[in-house]
Amino acid sequence: MQFKTFKNKLLATYLIFTGIIGVVAWFGYYFFKKSNDVTELADKIFRLMIDTQKAIRAGQDFFQYEAAKEEFLQNGESNYLQLHENTLYYIFESLKEIENTPEIEKFGFMEELGIASSAFIEYHGLFDKIVNKIKERGAKNTGLEGELRKIASKLESFPFMKRESFLLVQRWEKEYLTHQDSLCLKNFYAAFQKLNSDVKKLSSETKKNILPILVEYKTTFDKIVVIDDELGLKSGKGLSNQLRNTIIQIEEAVGIVMDKASLSRQSNNKRLQLTFSRLLVVTIVISIILSYTVASDITRPITQLATMIDVIILRKFDERTPLIEVKSKDEIGQLTANLNLMIQKLREYIKQLSEKSEELSLQNEQLKIVNKKLSESEANLRELNHIKNRFFSIISHDLRGPFNTLRGFLNILSSHAEGFSPSEIKALTAEMLIAVNNVYNLTNNLLQWSLTQTDGIKVNPTEVDLHKAVSETFTILSRQAQEKEITLYNYVPEGEKLYTDPNILDFVIRNLVANAIKFTEIGGWIRVSSHRLENGRLEIQVADNGVGIEPERLQKLFKIEERTSTKGTLNEKGTGLGLILCKEFLQKCNASMSVESTVGKGTTFKILF
């Protein structure tokens, strides 16, 4: 490629800068992807930590609240148990995802992750074993304890010579089942031994019927004792102790994994930031050097040409003005040749201008007449210019405020997102939503106003049910009214018909009612009514008992050049264009609007169709 022309030089410069931007963009994407992959892995580990605590908590809640309930012991149904199983499933799935992540080896906690995985498997087995043992043991009417109750009932039906012995056995049995105390167990076996001796003293026939049931009673009780020893729920031994130790092992392993993941994430982010910063600095240095070199090469001949033009201007294009020597054949050379031709033409024009000075004098007289006419229209132009300036002031002021708010919130969130709690983020987003709604309302009103100024609004009149239209407006604005405990009254007679544009009617009533809600105190009322005048025209009234409008502000309500926006009783913001739009829309429907207001008592807007 030849670089003798400006076009080729600029094209080459553009391609070089495009290449540099492409390289920086590629590295930026690479660094972002690396950082994002590490962040995703850390998030998975964090979710694993949360699910671990959730599963352990669900298991503890099951043992505390539902393990002894009849509903679980009879049909095995338990909300905590179901939550526990679901959470364990998610944990095992998360462990698989983490182990299959390519970046996992860089974090250096494969060993702890393996320990955690094994501990979860052991925990799952122990937990299921404990649950099965609890169901086997039962309580009251289920499991072994329920069977024990049935056997005891059989024994109670036999006449004993010494019934107090059996009652003593039952006492210590219940004491043990309640407290699982070793002393209770010892007393039970002593009482049972005495009962067994008493039974052996009975007649052969009675003894033959009672002894098998007595043996079955003791065998069932022994099974319960064995299961209690295995479980160790109250002694702190057995399966419950193993489960507790496994939970400690899981928490330690997952905690180590979480700590290492956090440290690795911070280290990786710092390394990526440092590398990208160095690349950015190198790119900036190369860009500055290249820009300076190209700029110098391009601007040198232009500077020389500008110097010659200054000389020509000082001499006022007279005959002594030298023509510029053409030194190159590129765009600058062509520009120089054209400048020489321009100088020659200017010499001719100057001569012609001097000859036409008298003619210009006559034209000046004519210009004075034109200026007089222009002066007569100056007032109208000034008024239009004032409206234009006010319009752009609305745009520059009212739009800049919400956007500055949004930019401030977004800057805070992007720089310090990890430092905010969910409630604080929710509060910020709520403020951002308010700013967005303000921008939307202002933009929509400006658009509607501009359409009225350019005849962009087309009126399509049709028959409208006024009572229904007011009811629909109340439905739309009911939430705003409920927030301020304002009562809405629709006093428009049912079946009242009006021939007008339904969209414009809805817009006007909605704006007036929304305005009334904005400037009505908590617990107030808003009333929409209508009645026919003697001449057949229909008058609609929107009244409230709000704060009212000062007399000086009443004169400015419907003027764009005097537009003001006042905060509501709860500091609600507005655009200040709503009433202006309402009046201009109504004029297109051959309708008019007026207002009456008393400060502290309320405001009434009247619409005459």
Keywords summarizing the entry:
609 residues; alpha+beta; 5-stranded mixed β-sheet; two-stranded antiparallel sheet; 18 helices; 7% strand; elongated
Q: Could you characterize the architecture of this molecule?
A:
- The chain has helices spanning 6-66, 70-75, 79-99, 104-107, 110-137, 143-156, 163-179, 182-200, 204-231, 238-314, 331-355, 357-376, 378-416, 422-453, 466-483, 502-518, 551-554, 578-588; strands spanning 462-465, 487-491, 497-500, 525-532, 538-544, 592-598, 602-608.
- It has 609 residues and is an alpha+beta fold.
- Helix 6 runs antiparallel to helix 9 (204-231).
- The two termini are 75 Å apart.
Summarize the model shown.
By secondary structure, this protein is of the alpha+beta class. 72% of the residues lie in helices and 7% in strands.
Give the number of helices: 18
What is the N-to-C order of secondary-structure elements (H for helix, E for strand)? Answer: HHHHHHHHHHHHHHEHEEHEEHHEE
- The helix content is over 70%
Poorly predicted residue ranges: none
In total, the number of strands is: 7
Q: Biggest sheet, open or closed, and with what strands and sense?
A: 5 strands, mixed
Give the integer mean of the pLDDT values: 78
Strand content is 5-15%
Distance between the termini: 75 Å
Instruction: Supply the helix-strand structural class.
Output: alpha+beta
In spatial order, strands of the major sheet run 2-4-5-7-6
- What would you report as the Rg, rounded to the nearest angstrom? 46 Å
Shape descriptor reads: elongated
